[in-house]
Amino acid sequence: MHRILILGGGFGGVYAAMRLQSRLRHRPDIDVTLVSRDNYFLFTPMLPQVATSSVDTRHIVQTIRRICPRVKLLQAEIETIDFATRTVTISHAEGHRHQLGYDQLLLAVGGVTNYFGLPGVAEYSLPIKNLSDAIRIRNHALDMLEQAELEDDAALRKQLLTFVVAGAGFAGVETAAELDIFVRRAAKQYRNFTAADIRTVILDAQSRVLPELSEQLAAFTQATLEKRGMEVRMGVRVRSADAEGIDLADGTRIATRMFVWAGGVAPNPVIAALPCTNPRGRIEVDQNLAVPGYAGIWAIGDCAEVASAPGAKPYPPTAQHALREGEHVADNMIALADGKPLKPFAFTMIGQMANLGERSAVAMVGGFKISGFPAWWLWRTYYLSRIPTLERKIRVALDWTLDLLFSRDTVKLSMPSDVRMEDGSHGQRN
Ligand SMILES: Cc1cc2nc3c(=O)[nH]c(=O)nc-3n(C[C@H](O)[C@H](O)[C@H](O)COP(=O)(O)OP(=O)(O)OC[C@H]3O[C@@H](n4cnc5c(N)ncnc54)[C@H](O)[C@@H]3O)c2cc1C
Predict the structure, then answer these.
(1) 16 alpha carbon – ligand 1 mean position (Å)
(2) Per-residue pLDDT tens digits for 110-145
(3) What is the value of pTM for the model shown?
(4) What is residue 411's predicted lDDT score, i.e. its pLDDT?
(5) What CATH number corresponds to the domain at position 280?
(6) 422: which of 297, 319, 328, 410 lies 20 to 30 Å off by Cα?
(7) Residue 127 near ligand 1, beta carbon < 6 Å
């Protein structure tokens, strides 16, 4: 039995698994196992919409067992990878450990949130990387509104109604735009303040929003957000954060109790200890997506550095690259198992889009710059087509339709960590 082990159930790992299962249908001699922290695949492009109630939490996730029924899924934490013994140590939440052997290993563990070591930022900001982050953002935003409702002190109320997002890349802009829509619409249900009291700020050290897109589209984005009443502060660096606000490098301070951090992606610690990581903490692969010098080891997605040619700039860490690398590496893994030649990976980016909500978006597709409603329609059509399974596509389409007809859900479901115990302490998050 030839054993293929995939680490990571995100865009790279799951698309590799899907390709392997479809190509290995009649190959009982090859076993495919996938290990991931969660038993579901998360469709990250819609995470900001989950954080702000326009799409239901469960509709942007799908169980990996349903998408890849012929792949063995192990829901576990990946602890260590040992190339010398060709084993991976994994552990279940309950604490029991297992060792898995492999003949070929695919590293697709993605990245983690990068706080750049800024004092207080990891402690006092909310990241937007996974599903629980989105749920926490939504709950925290609602909590701010609830607290503002009972607050008589005008300065404190102002602080509670100030929402800050740091990072004006795709994730930051989409999160800030959706968060602003969510809290302004929700404000109609409260008595102690109105939408006009809400202050939403997006800031970044870069000189403009969405630097990956053209200046024209960045200007459109900034103008759209400002027209809605948002504050866009570019060229300003976060220096530190605490429970009461954020200090900026220009000497100013923003008093806030809700600070979302979308400032960047850092290497996954699970691969940091490997001998093949480069000084940036990522794994450089060759044209075939193989790790040079390590037979049968492959890396793709956000944890890898994949370049179109030796010495060329690496492809950006996006889902559209990770999923294509996943499909391509699956073909090469089968080729390696069968002793056939490997094929080099090449991909020309189709385009990039950012959803600004309220039927507006920006997109650069095939050199064309599109903004406003046509870009929004394109964003929705494209991403709806990419969500795995017809059932989830229908559910998301229904959520969007209902969002046009009804106000957004503002029910705040407590997480175990939010639960107030009888003695006044807070419950433990499990
Ligand atoms: C809010 C947001 C919006 C985005 N929007 C877009 C977009 O519109 N378009 C686009 O192209 N890209 C977008 N991206 C980027 C895109 O999500 C990533 O580039 C893509 O997910 C990378 O795929 P990956 O497989 O490398 O990593 P991931 O998708 O991050 O998958 C990594 C997997 O490994 C698992 N894992 C990691 N460490 C461990 C461990 N120690 N043990 C067990 N499991 C582990 C994780 O749980 C996860 O399942 C967005 C990202 C975010 C956060």
Answers:
(1) 14
(2) 999 999 999 999 999 999 999 999 999 999 999 999
(3) 0.92
(4) 82
(5) 3.50.50.60
(6) 410
(7) no
